[in-house]
Amino acid sequence: MSGPSNPIENSFELAASRCADLTPLVYQRLFEQHLETRAMFRSQGSELVMGSMLALAIEAVLDFANERRGHFRLIACEAASHEAYGTSRELFIAFFAIIRDTIRDLLGARWSADIARAWDTLLVEIDAFTKARA
Hints:
This protein is mostly helical and about 130 residues long. It has a single domain, classed as Globin-like (Orthogonal Bundle), CATH 1.10.490. The protein is about 70% helix and about 0% strand. It has 6 helices and no strands. The chain has helices spanning about 5-20, 25-35, 45-65, 75-85, 90-105, 115-130. Helix 1 crosses helix 5, helix 2 packs across helix 5 (about 90-105) and helix 4 (about 75-85) crosses helix 6 (about 115-130).
């Protein structure tokens, strides 16, 4: 049986076969690349918040990259919500690149040109989508 034909979905499935939980890897990278983000999470219970945020982001990305049945709209809603809390739109969008980069590192040699192109296109489309709804 072959994997999904959508390169974004395929990248998540390949990553899941190598790592049961992306949360620590994604947030470690986020905190390293954007030092100011560490202070955005309270110390107790933040693991649950981070896991929930990542799960919602992944669900929205997968819908955005596929049929766009509705979950993708969460991206624009959360961009506006985060902006109201003082998170810049640029930092909000950077989170999706952090997810991509984490998956890319996990996949290593299995990160293909098709997956890279699909993610590059997706990130541009997400950025345009959030700007159009600003």
